[in-house]
Amino acid sequence: MNVIVLFSYCLIALLGAFTAVVLSSYRPAAIVLTVTVLLLSSAFAAPEQVIVSIAPTWDSPTGKLQCFERVGNRWRAVSGVVPVLYGAKGLAWGRGIHGQNETGLHKVERDKRAPAGVFRIGKIYTHDTALPAGANYPFFTITKNCAWPDDPANPYYNRHITVDPANKPEWFEKQKMRHNDFAYRWLVEIRHNSDPPVSDAGSAIFFHLRRGVDRPSAGCTVMAEKDLVNIIRWLRASGKPRYALLPREEYESRWKQWNLPPPETAARLLKK
Asked: Domain extents for the chain?
């Protein structure tokens, strides 16, 4: 178990015990402490949704993806297996919940590799004013003033920002988000290198639409529109969604440690 998570659980337990003691002597303080315990318990609750993507090897530009939900202590598949594409050169360890401390090749800017590991799912960024019918997830409508800098020297590297339209910086045209590009209609943020961003460790990683069945991305996970729309409709903020992207052998050796669906549950996804 992650040391930070273990520490958090211990802290919650101590607060709970202290609350019980205080409760008998001073009820207002106990109420405050009880609320604190509940908030901490929620903050460190296990995710209920995970998107798992498996690549055959580290250098594979293609793979498969499937969605899972936690029911009690068990994961169950809630979607079929769909084909996806990654960076043209495959995968490299990314910076997220899991992966950044692993040995091996790590992602850097413009390496044409998708980040491997486990990541939180951020907002959905779209050119539309609403999500697809049936979706209910935090989103932002991209304007002509939005940028997501991928220049490691930019102070706003790997962040979404909105600039002053009357005073746009010189770098804006090369970093803007609004393009006449159908592939960017839906951008589901994969929070790689986000907390906080580290210069040159890779930026602007999303799920988005593929440009062709055999056209890899620069580092994102891309797929057919119907498959991405299904994911958008399924996501919910209360599920604390995660994205796990790994080569097959890495998944088979790490799923238990990282609390991912077991191989028998993800059998269709892991099938060679």
From this structure: 3-43, 49-270
Residue 44 exposed, middle or buried by CB count within 10 Å (0-12, 13-18, 19+):
middle
Q: Give the torsion through C-alpha atoms of 233, 235, 238, 241, to 10 deg.
A: 180
Per-residue pLDDT tens over the stretch 69-123: 999 999 999 999 999 999 999 999 999 999 999 999 999 999 999 999 999 999 9
Per residue in 244-269, pLDDT tens?
Answer: 999 999 999 999 999 999 999 999 99
Report if pTM > 0.70. yes
